[in-house]
């Protein structure tokens, strides 16, 4: 049976060694076996499979509790299919909201740059139009309260 060091798993998964240790402490993976002579972690193929899933979930911004739920549902298979779908769709909705917020920020920055460009050129008409667009863009920002 092949086993892998934490360095191997880190290189393969893209997750840092501290993250791998944290995921083990949090109960998301493992318990991971230890080398009898050195005490170092030795990951097995099935550990790598779970870690690959966790790396993907992390890449899409899923939190620890959602990861825990996902893994628990994964072992339940078809019986948990609807719950898995809903979990993933909730994360997709969060990402869509983030994208929308980022687009609003980008729009504001572009309109503000256009305003300063018009000022630089001394074009009062373009500056007035850019100011109107900046005001509209501010309305789309999520301002702190």
TrEMBL record:
Residues 78-105 form a coiled coil. Signal peptide: none annotated. CDD domains: HTH_YyaN (cd01109). The keyword Translocase does not apply. It holds the Pfam family MerR_1. One of its GO terms (molecular function) is DNA binding. Keywords: Coiled coil, DNA-binding. InterPro entries: DNA-bd_dom_put_sf, MerR-type_HTH_dom, MerR_fam. Residues 3-73 form the HTH merR-type domain. This is MerR family transcriptional regulator. It comes from Microbispora triticiradicis.
